[in-house]
Amino acid sequence: MSQSAVDVPAKGGFSYDLCKRNDMLIQKGLKAPSFLKTGTTIVGLIFKDGVILGADTRATEGPIVADKNCEKIHYMAPNIYCCGAGTAADTEAVTDMVSSQLRLHRYQTGRDSRVITALTLLKKHLFSYQGHVSAALVLGGVDITGPHLHTIYPHGSTDTLPFATMGSGSLAAMSVFEAKYKEGLTRDEGIKLVAEAICSGIFNDLGSGSNVDICVITKGNKEYLRNYMEPNPRTYVSSNGYSFTKKTEVLRTKITPLKERVEIIEVTGEAMEE
Amino acid sequence: MTFTIPIDNGDSVKNAEADSQRTLYPYVTGTSIVAIKYKDGVLMASDMGGSYGSTLRYKNIERMKAIGKHSLLGASGEISDFQEILRYLDELVLNDNMWDDGNSLGPKEVHNYLTRVMYNRRNKFNPLWNTLVLGGVKKGESYLGMVSMIGVSFEDNHVATGFGNHLARPILRDEWHADLSFEEGVKLLEKCMRVLLYRDRSAINKLQIAKITEEGVTVSQPYSLKTFWEFQAFHNPTAGAQGSW
After folding, report:
1. HSE (CB half, 13 Å, CA atoms) of B53?
2. How far is Cα B177 from Cα B172, in angstroms, rounded to an integer?
3. Does the CB of B203 have a partner CB in chain A at under 8 Å?
4. Which family does it belong to (chain A) (predicted)?
5. Which of the 8 DSSP states describes residue A35?
6. pLDDT at A35
């Protein structure tokens, strides 16, 4: 291996250096770790005064439900939220990253973020990774130019729509929208329709389940209704609660409050110098 | 005039006979069928399109046919296999009539026969590339069942094939209830067919609805659904996002 003065990796995009080594490992019998996919139903719709986003809360790892109540509606800006389907890590990372970029941009411009800014940042990033970042997003928000709703596909293409669905339950949810969407819905009608579409995904798609999350964004206001609907409660809960067999004797009880163990050091002058 | 295609691989000459005897992929296909039970019997809807790959080659294919006095068969998938199945069923009904004993094949019996045929073909790795929907009424009892190309068969209050499973079934699960009237049933089916028209690329706007009751089978004349494209947002979709699409 030659000694190069400064070994700078190429900017942006993937480095495929390790592919050969990964192939060799797989041939030797190593099982690649399966990634956590969200197998999802996410929807968005534009109503009279703004945008309503909805999502289910099930995260799957192959056939197993990894998280029964995860959050798929991500914060991008005070007036912009984004639902994510596909690989959970990808949607989380990409929305976090663009959210930070938007905040810095807000500081620089002194204005509220616009939805197309988030859209362009997301699609630039996803396109440069040629679809390997498996994030399918429904981006919605209300900015100075009005309410906007976009879908972004893993390869970087986008659509601007009055109503949109993504994820494995997208067909079930889309059938509800196609049958029932009208223009000029009120807030309550819109929430009802979004909840219906997500429920259609929850009950008809195996990759979606548990509860319904809803986020309503209007001019100057947003409402994040976490677990707006819980159509899958635990049916059989023992009324006795848990009781251990009598054989378990409590010998000694010692409670150590953790607060006492933490030393709070008051720093005067310049902290964080290093 | 003959022309020979040069065959490079010696093996394919020997196996040519063996390979050409199996169905490998469908050529002319029909898209979804949606069917529901209602108060007086069964209602089934299908469009009249036959696609040749991604071309819409045929626009006048009847994918629902009456079988005997009591049943209606609808098929999606390969059209030639559907025609073959109709020939088998013709023979079956003919033999049944020849007994002349006043008894006739009901929907349950036809469904069972089809299940056996489909399953046995699949076991020989030479399937009839169809998903069949069998509906009928005999002695006041309505019957609605489905058989897939691998022999999976079941009955239910509402069934759909192909894309209908993903787009129509959620609507039916929500809105179907027992004792629908004829008008309600047709409205429900049209709702499903409209969503399919919007979202299934191989659907066409020319459909038939068939009704089976105790009196017999009627298949309607072809007609088309009203569609709505006038959402404001579609007029100028990227007004808020100049340069995007």
Report:
1. 1
2. 9
3. no
4. Belongs to the peptidase T1B family.
5. P
6. 57
Nearest Cα residue in chain B from A147:
B240
Complex-level ipTM: 0.76
Enumerate the residues of chain A whose CB falls inside 8 A of the CB of residue B244: 116, 119-120, 150, 158, 160
Q: Answer whether A115 sits within 8 Å of B241, measured CB to CB.
A: yes
SS3 A231: coil
Tell me whether A175 touches chain B (CB under 8 Å): yes
Residues 6+ apart with CB under 8 A from A1: none
Q: What is the pLDDT of residues B197-227, one digit of tens each?
A: 999 999 999 999 999 999 999 999 999 999 9
Tell me the DSSP string of A175-229.
Answer: HHHHHH--SS--HHHHHHHHHHHHHHHHHH-TT--S-EEEEEEETTEEEEEEEEE
Give CA–CA dist A198/A182, Å, rounded: 17
Q: Tell me the pTM.
A: 0.78
Question: Does B199 contact A at CB distance below 8 Å?
Answer: yes
Residue of B nearest to A168 (CA): B166
What SS3 state is found at A255? coil
Lowest mean pLDDT among A63-72, A95-104, B35-44, B171-180: A63-72
Tens digits of residue pLDDT in A165-216: 999 999 999 999 999 998 889 999 999 999 999 999 999 998 888 899 999 9
B183, B52 Cβ separation under 8 angstroms: no
Catalytic residue numbers of A, as ranges: 40
DSSP H helices, chain A, are 19-27, 88-109, 115-128, 170-180, 187-204
